[in-house]
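can u do me a favor
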């Protein structure tokens, strides 16, 4: 029996989905969405808030403000409600409506940036707004997930060791790259504790994180328009870039097997499948991939046919009259 008094006290590090029947390779999907925040961001949010309380940055009367495409915003909304802080989430119009409503239901204020900055796009505009608010009122506290070391330390302390405990012979770990907190925490853990393990980062086409050209990205979560300050590429062995249409296909393929995951997870699964098809055709490696989120918040986007076809074309989900199965190629 688990009895808790605050929502952030519950999480699970021991749930994995075996995807061999889906992609034809030994890939175990570590599910990070089974908590009250619904995503992997609960770990970083908890660590950042607790550290800010310990050093006195956060105190009674403080207003937490953060830029987020959605999942961290939900996690901080939940923790702020639990601990009695006000919270302002600065996002843009790519944030799912369900996610915005969830934050508001938890008592947060949501500010939506509608115009991209000349440098840095929507993310740059969001950060500009946060900095303006912090400069205008000393009550505002910006935890700054983009450079806060506690964001990666959360995963160095929990996620990496949890993978190693359940799969001591793991060969490759696939991690999605957004702010890169999760990626860096897992990568640092394995670099120090199990250096033979390869870390493969999965990013979205159109993200500038690993030096690619900026492009349109409509699915929130992974990818950035500003290179993350905490990224250390020396800890990453390989990078896979995934087209958003492939993200959508992967999500639908998993849903047809009863597993409804979010866009970030679809990107990671698609990228892992592509990497394994190229580098492990005989299925000799033991691999783990991180699933950052679940799919309910994407019902009006990734799982909505009109939204998908308007953005990616009428044939994106269908091949010859049957459901496409891109991750089983």
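np, heres the sequence
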């Amino acid at each position: 029996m688990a009895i808790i008094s605050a929502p952030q006290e519950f999480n699970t590090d021991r749930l994995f989905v075996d995807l061999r029947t889906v992609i034809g390779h030994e890939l175990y999907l570590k599910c990070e969405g089974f908590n009250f925040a619904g995503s992997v961001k609960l770990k970083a949010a908890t660590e950042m808030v607790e550290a800010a309380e310990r050093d006195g940055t956060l105190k009674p009367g403080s207003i937490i403000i953060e830029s987020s495409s959605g999942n961290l915003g939900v996690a901080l909304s939940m923790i702020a409600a639990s601990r009695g802080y006000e919270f302002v989430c600065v996002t843009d119009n790519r944030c799912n409506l369900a996610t915005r409503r969830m934050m508001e239901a938890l008592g947060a204020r949501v500010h939506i940036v509608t115009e991209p900055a000349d440098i840095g796009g929507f993310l740059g505009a969001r950060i500009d707004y946060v900095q303006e608010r912090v400069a205008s009122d000393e009550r505002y506290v910006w935890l700054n997930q983009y450079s806060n070391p506690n964001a990666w330390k959360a995963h160095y302390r929990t996620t990496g060791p949890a993978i190693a405990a359940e799969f001591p012979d793991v060969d490759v770990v696939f991690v999605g790259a957004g702010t890169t907190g999760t990626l860096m925490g897992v990568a640092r853990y394995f670099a120090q504790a199990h250096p033979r393990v390869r870390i493969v980062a999965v990013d979205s086409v159109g993200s500038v994180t690993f030096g690619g050209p900026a492009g349109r990205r409509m699915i929130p979560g992974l990818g950035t328009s500003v290179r993350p300050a905490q990224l250390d590429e020396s800890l990453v062995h390989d990078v896979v870039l995934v087209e958003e249409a492939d993200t959508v296909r992967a999500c639908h393929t998993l849903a047809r097997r009863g597993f409804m995951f979010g866009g970030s997870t679809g990107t990671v699964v698609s990228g892992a499948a592509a990497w394994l098809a190229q580098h492990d055709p005989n299925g000799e490696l033991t691999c783990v991939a991180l699933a950052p989120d679940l799919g309910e918040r994407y019902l009006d986007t990734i799982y909505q046919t009109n939204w998908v076809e308007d953005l990616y074309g009428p044939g994106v989900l269908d091949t010859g009259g049957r459901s496409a199965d891109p991750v089983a190629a």
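The chain has two domains: 9-34+155-309, 41-142. hope that helps!!
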